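Lecture notes, unit on protein representations.

Consider one protein chain, 364 amino acids long.
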Amino acid sequence: MDESYLYQQIAETLRQEILAGTRKPGEKLPTVRKMTTFWDCTPGTVQRAYKILAQQGLIQSRPGQGTHVANVPDLKEIKPLRRATLFNRAENFLLESFSAGYSQNEVELAMRMALDRWRVVNTEIQTDTANVIRYAGSNDIAIAWMSAHFSEILPNFQLSLQFGGSLSGLIALAEGKTDMAGSHLWDEDSRDYNKSYVERILPGKKVALVTLAYRQLGLIVPRENPLNISSLNDLKRPEIRFVNRQSGSGTRVWLDSRLRDLSIATSPIHGYNNEKLSHTDVARSIVDGLANTGIGLKAAANAFDLGFVGLTSEHFELVIPAKILQRPAVKDFVEWLATKEAQSAVAAIEGYAASQTGQVRWIK
C-alpha cells in the first residue's frame, strides 16, 4: 500500500480500537519499531499516524515511558462521528455492490456470512453484562439472523455470538462463560442428539434443550455435481478431494459416527484432515476449487449457488441451564422462539425446518 495513505489506515485502526474499548486508557501502545515491522512501513509513517491520534486527544507520549492511550473523559462527542464514519463506509460499500449488479438479498447474505466468519475467528467471549445474552457453540445461520434483529425481538438487549463448535459451547456453558450453547451432537449409542453430552458435561444440573431447528446436512458439491457424488461411499474415490469440519463440531461428530456405521476408513479419504471452522468455509473451498465436496449445510450450499446431496436432518438445540432460564430476558427469548414469527423466520432459511422450533425438553 502507498505509505502516503497507510498512515491514515494505521491511525484509523488504532482510533477504532480505542473508541471501542479494545485498548484501555493508560495502556501502552506498541513502539514505533514494532509498528513498522507489523505494518511493513517506515518509522515516519507510524510517527505520522501517532501524531494524528495525539492531535485528536486519544493518545499521549510520556518522556521515557512511551506512548499511551489517553484518559478520554467523555466519548459521547466522539461516538456520533465514529458512527457516521461507519455509516458512510457502509453506504459506499452498498453503492459499489449494487453498481456491480448484486441484489440486496445477495449483499445482505454476504455480510451476514462474513460476520459469522469473524465470530469464529474472534475467540473472545463477551463478558457478562446485564443487557447481553451470551451464546457460544455451533455455527448457525438462524441464530446469526436473530442476533442481527435482536433489538426487534427484545428491545434494549443484545445477543452476543461466539461461534466455535458444539463441544466448545457446552464447555463454555459448564465454565460459566456463556448463557446458552448451540449444539447438534449426535450420540450413536442413544441415537439421539445432545442429551448424553449435556449429561456428561453438566452432570446433575437441570437443563433445558430448546429446539432451534432441524437442519439439512449433507455433501456440498459444485453446481450440477459433475462427479456424480451421491453418498459417503464416494469419498473413497481417488479423484474426490474432500474438505472436513473441525474436531468437536457437531457436524464432524455425526460424520465420524456415520463413517463407522458404514465401515468406511478415513485414511483413503483425500482431505479428511483438511478441517474448516464453519459451513461457509467448506462452501468457499469448493467455490475456490480447493475441494470438490465437503460436509456442510444445505443453507451454505445455496448461499454460494452450489449443489447439495442430502444425508440427514439434524436436531439443533439451544442448551440453557434452568437457573439461567429464570432470567426474564432469557425466558422471554425462549418464549419468542415458540411464536409464529420466530418459526417463519427460521423456515425462511433454505434447508431449515421450523415445525418444532421453540419446543423444550428437560434434563433433570
